Amino acid sequence: MRGFRFLARLGLVAAALFAAPPGALAQELRIGVRAGPEAIDPHYMALGNHAAALKNIFDPLVWVDENLQVQPGLAVSWRPVNDTTWEFKLRPNVRFHDGSPFTAADVKFSIERVPSVAGPDGGLVIYTRSIVGVDIVDDLTIRIRTNVPNAALPQDMTRMFIVSSRIAPDSKAPEFNSGRAAIGTGPFRFVSWTPRGDLVMERFPGHWRGDAPWSRVTLVEISNDAARVAGLLSNRVDFANYVPVSDIARLKRERNIAVFQGESIYTFILYPDLREDMSAPAMRMITDKQGNTLSRNPFRDRRVREALSLAIDRAGIAQSVFEGTAVVADQLMPNYMFGANPNPQPLRYDPARARALLAEAGYPNGFRFPLYCSSDRLPGDGATCAALGQLFARVGLDVQVNAQPRTVFFPARTRGDYPITMAGWGTLTGEAGYALSSFVHCKREGGRYGAFNVSHYCNEELDRIIAEAMGTLDDAKRRELFQKAQDMAVADYGQIPIVTLPTVWAGRANLTWTPRADEDTLAFFIRPR
């Protein structure tokens, strides 16, 4: 994949138009997805599966292409007016699914409703946290004011989905789920949704990119990987995401199936909870081998965190769980991203040194803890979790692995119910500030920084560097600061990277698809040959 190029101020890039081929407009498409949306309100959650599903119905203000390059979306151009103000010019002649025109009022309404409708993971606050005001200049011009300089605001707006300002101001997830408020400008309009089941959509004629090639699209949630592949082979679905790597060779032998492989933005990361208060229920789960609660949190000791990292055979996981298609992760995001170190210091696998560090920290016999992860969010999540449990056992740690459905895992994780977790993180904007400010920076009230810091990790010097980078408009200086912060974070083991995932789709041989780094499966871009 081409390296990420920071294009925040190049908003005049021409939009590609995708005209549907003649004769293709009456077809239907069924897509098997590992995880569908959590609701139909696009502002409810920031989870990748949620955003990917709803991007079929709601357009973002700024588009991002398959290589994480920012492109015109509902905004056709953008520019900084001053250090804390960005101006966005909006696309003319765009209409919502109810026929009403898209204007600056809809952008203002959408941004301002985000804090009041956020779900269990904080919703889209992660993208709007720096915004202090939205000013309408005219129907097709809007200015967004931030409390500090934010060079990445156009990147943030790639996940800012626009809803109609004509819906009831107090509309929340139930109104969207029923369809009453599910009014977007996307290439498909909402028909119906069954939680953990089917999301049915129909073509929206006159979409600004051109008509979609499918009259009707159904996202069929099939969380079991084998069942999803079986659904493709049995014609239950025409296309499927998150194909297990173990099935790639078999599917490639099928004459009627095409396989599409690409790089992913998702990295599995281990998040030890560094809270000091051992009276919290989650922290009481950390015990000695006899089940006695410890008087202090061992994860607060850097030597213990380093031991966890040294115990992880990243190359072994990449090979055994992902059959060599995953990439060893030596930092918190893929190396090609803006602000990542292109040549990070390798994280070693050294179980002998891990045991020595545990003894040095006062745990010569190890200790016991449960490790929690999702079982149905990303490919290999449960298997990677199980592998970690086995690897930690080799250095004397007694680990109970708990792989849970995402609907159980993520809300509990957000509440702080678990002492250590493993989950995938996708740097959706393609630049380091998104990750560093979200889960490395100390957690702050109001959600501007540390919104996803489930580790309760806090390093004031690191925070200072992250904040300086986030407020720097000079790209070269910002990249340098992000790389410094990234190296510091990895060296302190507050969060521990494991592997970066592959991403694999499969579909009928008469379909074409360009793999996306963000893993979004977008029906508009699945094309008949």
From TrEMBL:
The keyword Ribosomal protein appears for this protein: no
Origin: domain of life: Bacteria
Domain Solute-binding protein family: 69-445
Subcellular location: Periplasm
Alphabetical UniProt keywords: Signal, Transport
Cross-referenced Pfam families: SBP_bac_5
Any one GO BP annotation for this protein: peptide transport
Claim: Signal is one of the keywords in the record: yes
Transmembrane segments: none
Residues spanning the signal sequence: 1-26
One Gene Ontology molecular-function label: peptide transmembrane transporter activity
Sequence similarity: Belongs to the bacterial solute-binding protein 5 family.
Name of the protein this chain belongs to: ABC transporter substrate-binding protein
